[in-house]
Amino acid sequence: MTDVSGGALRPARGTGGGGFAHGTRVLITIAAACVVFAGVWFARDILAPAAVAAVVVIIAHPVRHPLERRGWPSWLATTAVIVVAYLILGILATLLVVASAQFIGMLPDYADELTATVQAVYDWLTSLGMTSEAAESAAAAIDPKTLLSFAAGVADAVLGAATAFFFVLAYVIFMAADAASLSRGGRVFGTAAADTIGARYFSGVRRYYVVNASFGLVVAVLDGLFLWWVGVPIPIVWAILAFVTNFIPNIGFVIGLIPPAILALVVGGWPLALAVVAAYCVINVVLQVLVQPKFVSDAVGLSLTLTFFSVVFWTLVIGPIGAILCIPLTLLVRALLLEPDERSGPLRRLTGDPHATRT
C-alpha cells in the first residue's frame, strides 16, 4: 500500500501495526481482565475447589516419577499420587476441625474474664478521651457475644466446606489421572517454550509451598511452646493458626498474632499480652520477615508489592481461600499472559520475574 506520493504507508506512530494505539490496547486489556475476573468471582464456589485440587495435585505429582522408575504400573503410581494428595487434604482438614472445636469449647470457660476485660478496655479508652460510642465499638471486638458469634461462624464454615471438600476430592482424582496421561504424551503444552514455562510454574508452586510449610512448622512449634510456657490457654490452636497463616504472605503474621494476644490480655492482663506480642515479633519477624522472604523470592520470583497486592486481590475474587492460593494464582496469570510474549520483558521484570529478559 502506498500514499499519494508513491511512498509506502506506515502504521501510525504508537500503534505497533495492530490498528490501535498502545494506550487503547492497554485499556481494552484492562476491560477484558475486569470481565474475566468478574466471571471468576461469580463462579468462585466452583473454581475455588478446583484451584485447591490443582495445587495439591501439583505438590503431590512428583511422587509418580520414582515409583514409575521402580517399575510400578501407571495406574498404581497415579493411585499413590491421589493418596498423597488426600493425606495432605486430610491433615489440613483435621487441623482446622481440631482447632475450631477447641476454640468453641474454650469460650464458655472464659466468659466472665472476657466480660471483665471488655469493661476494663472500655474504661481505659474513655479515660483517654474517646467517646463512649467509639470506646464501646472498640471493646466489642472481644465481647463474649461477638466471639461466640465468630466461633459459630467458624463451625458453620467448617461444616459448609464439606460440600466443597467433596468436589476437591473428586477433582484430585480426575486431575491426577489427566496429569499421568499428559506426562506420557511427549510435549505437554505443544511447544518446547510452553513446556519450559509450565515446568517452571509447577516447580515454583511446589517450592513455594515446601518453603512455607517448613517455615510454618518451625514458627508454629516455637509459638505454641512459648504460649504453653507462659500459660495462654489452648496453645495448640494458636500453633495451628500460626502454621496456616504462614501461607498468607505479608499479613499472615498479624492475623496469627491477634487472637492469642487478646486471650493473653484476658487471662494475664497487659503484661502477658505484651509478652506474647514481643515473643511473636521476635520469632515471626525474624523467620517470616527477614529469612523466609529470601527463600520465597528464590522459589517464585514475585516482587514484595505484587505479593501483598495478590493477597488482597485474590481474597476479593474467590474468597478467603484466595489468601492461601494467591501466589500460585498470580504465577498462573503471569505464566499465561506474560511469559509467552517476548515483548513483555519490562512487565515481567516489574513482577519480579528473574527469567525476564531486558528489551
Provide a descriptive summary of the structure in words.
InterPro entries: AI-2E-like. It is found in: Cell membrane. It holds the Pfam family AI-2E_transport. It is a multi-pass membrane protein. It is a single chain. Residues 1-17 have low confidence and may be disordered. This protein has helices at 22-42, 44-60, 64-69, 74-106, 111-127, 132-139, 144-183, 192-230, 235-245, 252-300, 304-318, 321-337, 345-351. By secondary structure, the protein is mainly α. It has a domain at 203-338. The protein is globular and about 70 Å long.
Give the low-confidence spans: 1-17
Structural class of the helix and strand makeup? mainly alpha
- Radius of gyration using CA atoms only: 25 Å
How many helices does DSSP assign? 13
Q: Report the average pLDDT across residues.
A: 77
Distance between the termini: 30 Å
Helical residues, percent: over 70%
User: SSE string, helix = H, strand = E?
Assistant: HHHHHHHHHHHHH
Biggest beta sheet summary: none
Shape: globular
Question: How much strand content do the residues show?
Answer: under 5%
- Quantity of strands, as a count: 0
Organism: Agromyces fucosus
Transmembrane segments: 20-40, 46-63, 75-104, 157-177, 209-230, 236-258, 270-291, 311-333
Protein name: AI-2E family transporter
Keywords: Cell membrane, Membrane, Transmembrane, Transmembrane helix, Transport
